[in-house]
Amino acid sequence: MKFVIIGAGQAGATAAAKLRELQPDSQITLIGDEPAPPYQRPPLSKAYLKGELPLERMFLRPERFYSEHRIDLRTGVEVQALHTAARSVVLKDGTTLDYDAALLATGSAAIALPDAITGGLAGIFAMRGLADADRLRDRLKPGLRALVVGGGYIGLEAAAVLAAMECRVTLVEAGPRILGRVASAPTADHIRALHAARGVDLREGEHLVRLTGRDRVERAVLGSGEELEIDLVIVGIGIRPATGLAEAAGIEVDNGIVVDDTCRTSEPHVWAAGDCAAFPFEGRRIRLESVGNAIDQAECAARNMAGETVRYAAKPWFWSDQYDMKLQIAGLSQATDQTVTRHDGDVLQSVWYLREDQLVAVDAFQAPRDYMVGKRLVEAGAKVDPDQLADPTVELKTFLKA
Ligand code: FAD
User: Fold this and answer.
1) C-beta 242 within 6 A of ligand 1
2) Distance 164 CA to ligand 1 centre (A)
3) Closest ligand 1 atom, residue 80 Cα
4) C-alpha span between 393 and 14 (Å, rounded)
5) What's the predicted TM-score (pTM) here?
6) In contact, 352 and 385? CB cutoff 8 Å
7) What is the pLDDT of residues 277-301, one digit of tens each?
8) Is 79 near ligand 1, meaning CB less than 6 Å away?
9) N or C end of the chain, less CB within 10 A?
10) In terms of DSSP H, where are the helices of 230-290?
11) CB atoms within 10 A of CB 190
12) Is the CB–ligand 1 distance for residue 296 below 6 Å?
């Protein structure tokens, strides 16, 4: 069998390793347009940005892994076309490769601010790849005035790193509150307080209108009319799934590359996994932007590409590091009808999300036990009594026995 994997990120690298394990005699080509071998992205807005993680520790596997496992890793080369009828891909360097099964693991791209806002100025940083983080790291120093646009996890993590490095950070979130898309008000309140305590000027319901300066950004004009003097801007306003190649190949796309529960696209010999894939989940179609999903879905896709029939049952989990706080999340907190908080004294430990008394998600703040129990309950689809859950004298393990 000849396997071609397009995109050498978390999902692509996982699928390559799985395929080698399942099919020792197959031909596996893993193609990525970034120069580095497959690496982990989460530290880009955390330890790597802080300078606490060396480059080698960013790589998912040592470079020799690929040759030792006869995975033909080609980095720094883009796949420009996918010809599904001919079952071949065309690389930018002119090479054509045939496949029996192909995997689209193209990930996503950071949404950029429009030129009308940036004025084409220098000093504006995305948070997507190693190149972005390296460029940004070179500029960071105490006293630097930074504007972070977007109060999602990536913007907040970058703000935390910069604040810890004694930069002066303003964060603007256009929505009424930070984390509006992904977490409840109690979670947002907890995180807002962390940033306020570190001196981050966090503005919700505020947006960036325009950046001005000679060649580089020098000032930001906000919706309120206020002008801030700044040295650089970090943009964390979301991502778009990388679907261009699939679309051009005539594969169905709808906020992601549409796949069935075996990770197969509308083309029978093409699968998709990771950030780029839109898959069935509890009666709707979703995309997940997380490491856990990229790994599990890529392994499932690889199994199916190798001839098994395995259905993908997503078990969403995520984490965020801000200052010395580790937030762990299990489940998806959208479309819930009740949130319950658990405290240890005055300190918030966890936020629990219920839909008709069924536990569907949990956010745990430096509380591994709450996370572990919550994850098990979420995955079991457990029903819980909200009053009991909110009662700190009721031990969490009680719910596991119920
Ligand atoms: P990617 O890792 O993006 O890999 C896709 C690769 O395909 C890229 O290298 C891309 O350049 C390449 N590619 C695209 N098109 C082509 C083409 N035509 N030809 C060749 N190559 C191509 N998740 C968590 O769970 N926890 C976190 O704390 C967390 N923090 C994050 C922090 C940051 C700053 C970022 C950016 C992401 C974070 N994530 C986190 C999300 C997580 O990293 C992604 O969900 C995960 O990397 C998705 O894996 P993927 O393989 O689908 O995509």
Assistant:
1) yes
2) 25
3) 18
4) 43
5) 0.97
6) no
7) 999 999 999 999 999 999 999 999 9
8) yes
9) C
10) 244-248
11) 20
12) no
